[in-house]
Amino acid sequence: MSSSGRARVERLLELSRALLGEQRQALSERWHATTGLSPEGVAWALDHCLERAPSAAEIAALVATVPSARRAHVILPAQVFVAAQRALALALASAPQVFVRPSRRDPVLAQALAARGQGLFECVAELSVQPGDHVWAYGADLTLSALRAQLPAGAVLHAHGSGFGVAVVELTQAARLTDAARAIAEDVLCFDQRGCLSPRLVLALGQESQAHSFADTLAAALVEAGRRVPRGALSADERAEESWYRQCLACFAPILDSGHGSVSVRALELSLAASQGLAALLLPPAGRHLQIVPVERLDPALRGLERWLTSVGCATPELEARARALLPRARVVPLGRMQSPAFDGPVDLRADPGGELI
Asked: What are the angstrom distances between the C-alpha of 12 and each of 43, 65, 135, 240, 279?
């Protein structure tokens, strides 16, 4: 990739720093309204998840992940309000002309950056994709399937669809479990668990009796995290999903309240359940809900979930090494860093870096 791509990415980062330096309070009030996050939740995400000064090596790696194009387009999601920055960086690294369709629910960051960018990219209501253009799209799998049917032949789609994260702990290392629980709680509180990097399951190597003890520790950590960063408002659909989840889960496992969320322990053959689809997993919804799944062996559990996993947070370097060897296309990071991966490319590594030719 030419140096101009890198210059455009660096310009975007300069705009982000200036924007948050001058307009943070006003923008935060808008984000509180558009995202439903608490004011503390907005502040947490800005402080921990919006890149301001990535290393030169990270920027070089990000630029190297994208193919060159004449024009690029970005279709932005609403679940993670800072996600626009990395999505824009990928498109700007690729092409000198970039068109962005912000989320109707939360266009704040894209519009604010465009207003300051003096032509760096353009926000549009509808995209006009031509053959040869590259499209970075984020959303549910069904939405992306519909998009494929709409794109012209010869366009290249970089699709980032449904996914979730898992945390991995070793229950025999009792001295580390309190710290692990606190780190998991930080990964969960960010965006109130709406992002694709958010952990929904905790794979716990050990016995079920040990998992129940860890559930108490994790619930306490989530309560404490909720005091510092309260959960925000859920939409009507999210409240309905939360209610349905609690009712269904009560048929299989006790539920521990953890402030506004919950923690449960559910013995589950993950490889078998995963083969039957996500519905068989009874995956926790957004809103700070976690299931602890005791497992005897890590390998089959991770491999059973592989196609959905965007991020794996690990309690120890040894677990990181094992997860990285098993899942080369997932973000593998220490616990507490699941929501702030290196600025070296897409957060979701499952897609082909070259994109999908339509």
From this structure: 21, 17, 19, 38, 40
* Rounded CA Rg of the chain: 20
Examine the domain organization and report whether 229 and 288 are in the same domain.
yes
Locate 112 and state its tokens: 């604010």
Q: Which domain holds residue 265?
A: 164-334
Q: Give the distance, in angstroms, between the CA of residue 127 and the centroid of all CA atoms in the same chain.
A: 24
**pLDDT tens for each residue of 85-133:** 999 999 999 999 999 999 999 999 999 999 999 899 999 999 999 999 9
CA distance 332 to 323: 7
Same domain for 209 and 96, yes or no, is no
Cα-flanking dihedrals φ and ψ of residue 278, to 5°? -60, -35
Q: What phi and psi, each to the nearest 5 degrees, are found at residue 98?
A: -130, 130
Q: What is the pTM of this model?
A: 0.93
48 and 16 in a single domain? The answer is yes
- 92: how many CB neighbours lie within 10 A of its CB? 28
Q: Does one domain contain both 92 and 148?
A: yes
**CB within 8 Å of 152: residues ≥ 6 apart:** 129, 130, 131, 358
Closest CA to 76 of 88, 63, 62: 88
pLDDT of 272 > 80? The answer is no
| 21 in any annotated domain | yes
Backbone dihedral region of 33: left (phi > 0), alpha (psi from -120 to 50 degrees) or beta?
Answer: alpha
Residue type, 131: P
d(CA 253, CA 256): 10
Same domain, 263 and 143: no
